[in-house]
Structures are given as C-alpha cells and as structure tokens.
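[Automated response] Your request has been received and processed.

Submitted sequence:
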Amino acid sequence: MHSINDTVTAEQAAEDYEFLIRQLVRTRVINVSEINDCPKFDLVLLGMGPDGHIASLFPNHSVLNEKDQWVTFITDSPKPPPERITFTFPVINSASNVAVVVTGSSKAEAAHLAIDDIGPDSPQLPARMVQPIKGKLVWFLDAAAASRLDGIKASE
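Generated structure:
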C-alpha cells in the first residue's frame, strides 16, 4: 500500500503519486497492461455515489476524458472535500478485476443507469464508464441499491 501525501496541494499529490506508480511499473513491482502503458492492478475496488461518480470521477467533469495521466486531481469537487486526486479511466479499465460496491436506496437510480441497458439516450455516468479492457467487472449491491435494476425483484 502506498498512501497519498495529503500535506501538499492536490496537483502536487497527484504528480507525486503518479511518479511513484510509474516507478513501481518501471521496476516491475506492478505489472503493465498489454493493451496500453498503464499499470495493471490485480484489483481495483470502487464505491459509487448517488450521482454515479466512482473514485473522484464525477459526472460532466473534464477529468473524465483524461487519457495521458494515470493519476489526476480536481479542485472543484461537487461534494466535500473540494480537492481530490484519483486514478483515471485508462488505469481503472486496465485492471485485471474491478469490483464496484453499492449500498443504499439513494444510489438505486444511479445503479440502474450505470448497469441496465437503457439505450443510447442514457446519461454517461462515470460508473457506466467502468469497462475493463481485458479484465472482469463485478458489481456488489445490497437490495436497496439494486431495487431499480431491470429483472430484479424487491425481495432479491
């Protein structure tokens, strides 16, 4: 485990953390993806917010489109704290396994929009953008969070 330096700005913390991860990839402590140059973590464990955000990747935020950096930062988070750092989608989607854990009825609509096939007009929630390239994606939801999913009965 490698912690993030919380004594510097979000920008500096993101730069430092990416440098650390790049060193670990360069020395083969962390494998590299065969698809891109991103680290290939064995497991990325994510939670999801009621707005469909995962990690610190929020709906309609410019960092959703980040392709070059492995770690990025935001200073205008819609929920506290305002300054955050996060892995980008290229890193998340390069993992061997991604697990998303969702609990509570306040997240039921976002879970429905992220998981169910609701057509091309569905909002592009960050949780829906979790699509491992060669890895596996598993969702873990409690009954309340799963209550709006297609084909799920309330008692399941």
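Summary generated for your ticket: The chain has one domain: 10-141. The chain has three helices and five strands.
If you did not submit this request, please reply to this message.
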